[in-house]
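Check the record.
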Amino acid sequence: MKPVLSKQTLRNVFEGKATPLQKTLVEQWLEDPENQELYFQWLEEWECDNLQFIPDAASAYTRSLQIQPSAGNAPDTYPLNRPKRLYRWVAAAVLFLAMIGVYSLRDRLYYERYTTKFGEIRTVTLPDSSRVTLNANTLLEVPRFDVNPKVREVRLTGEAEFSVKHTADHRRFIVRTPDQLEVQVLGTEFTVYSRAKGSKVFLNKGRVQVRSLANQASAPLVIAPGDLVEVSKQGNFQVHHHQSATVHTAWKENRFVFENTPLSEIASQLNEQFGVHIIVADSALAQRTIGGTFKAQNADELLPILSDMLNMTVNQREGQPKTYQLTSAP
């Protein structure tokens, strides 16, 4: 049974009044990603009610060393003060570790996180009325505080389609990815893909500028509607013109569009979309291609179709419910 916590329990943690049992319950409660957003909301409320300061623990400890024993203390009782000094050391260490913990969580405090699970598609509306549709297995981070009057900036890991709202003050909209790709727009519709194997940007409407911060020698590139830009790990651009929007936005309707796509690439797409592990038995099978549009909400709906079309067998590994091995049919 999942632990249920009250706001007061978390306030006790923030104020350092929590019992060991309460701290354990909070740790278990935070293992559920759905509770983490609520945690930071309540933390923000508590911080607004309790303005914090950063104590100078080092100076405090130095002053404590200068405190002399009272006249009534006999020399042989003075060592009894040593545990107090030890307590100050422990208190300073705990405070220091707490400050490190807050610093390590600064991104979670500053950014609101929108996530999707495998097989899930989600649309969110940003504070500026821009809309973002997240593909499966995607993370979008949006600043909680509007501190930059010139730029709206978000961070993306995964794949998403952006419909950016133009603002009266002409604020730029920037998308950043883990491989230091920067996509900058004013008002447009585009799709950004950023996963382990690389990044790419497809422009549906308007104009965008892409720039790789990982390659300072690469000049910013402005692309037009229908352009697809693939970004290598070294930050180099490869542009493909006159691309079909259907291919790059079909995932919003749980559709896969293949155009002479090799099975190896199809397996990679299914792995990313549904969190499965597909093993292609040999290189010859991996190079077989297929074309067409297929709708599927999980791997089990698509694999039988591919099996018939590519003359192969699909075997689910025993004891591994999400692992499939593809082999050529005899």
